[in-house]
Amino acid sequence: MSISSDHKPLGKQVTGSLHTLSPIVELNVGGEMYTTTLSTLKKHPGSKLAEMFTGQPKLRTDSEGRFFIDRPGIYFKYILEYLRSNRVPTQCIQDVYKEALFYDIEPLIKQLEDSPQIFGELVARKQFLARVPNYSENIELMIRIARAEAVASRRSSVIVCVVRTEEDAARCQDALNSLDTDKKSVVKFGPWKAAPSISDLLDCIQMDVEAKGYKISFQPHVAEKGFRFKSHDFFYKFLFTWW
């Protein structure tokens, strides 16, 4: 197939190598339409995005002949803006970061990781949570317990025990045994070796459960018979609201 002089955009009728085709490319990214150049898409040769448009066409086309990428199209404009002008986005940082990871655009990934939003999440918060044993598993356990208790109820609650040190864990053991005897489920977090406090971890728990779409709040768990003195300081009730 020969190249037309008016450089028609790449389309579904194209079957040859991308090296021999028009430099103008039309894209359908998750329903959002973009027009750019082949050189822009291939600006970073080691990226997944560049690989999509190197050699034989690797993407399907839509009904209008535009190359289709099944990703959130609204954020692709920030990817294009960076490829065109090296301008790092200042909006939707978390979402653009996910797209940069998908397209494997290493320079953009590194610059986004230096932003306060990504730095705080990756370096500060996640590094802290990595030091809290079984954190992710405990989040899932909380959700399972709450869902099991949600039958014919507007709210369900989960008791959480948060202990920062081994000494705190020892102080809470009698209370944990008492709750176990009463057949009450308790999800225990900690201990950990890091600067953040119990209140910081509680905020993280709420943040990560809410990120999964649940409406949640927490309050100190009222001490009951069998609790040791002050051991209730480490017990909290997380309330899931279903409707």
UniProtKB/TrEMBL annotation:
Matching Pfam families: BTB_2, KCTD_C
Do you know which InterPro entries this protein is assigned to? BTB/POZ_dom, KCTD7/14_C, SKP1/BTB/POZ_sf, T1-type_BTB
Q: Which GO terms describe its biological process?
A: protein homooligomerization
Database matches in Gene3D superfamilies: Potassium Channel Kv1.1, Chain A
What domain of life does the UniProt record list for this protein's source?
Eukaryota
Q: Which ranges carry the BTB domain?
A: 23-120
Q: Which PANTHER family match?
A: BTB_POZ DOMAIN-CONTAINING PROTEIN KCTD14, POTASSIUM CHANNEL TETRAMERIZATION DOMAIN-CONTAINING
What is this protein called in UniProt?
KCD14 protein
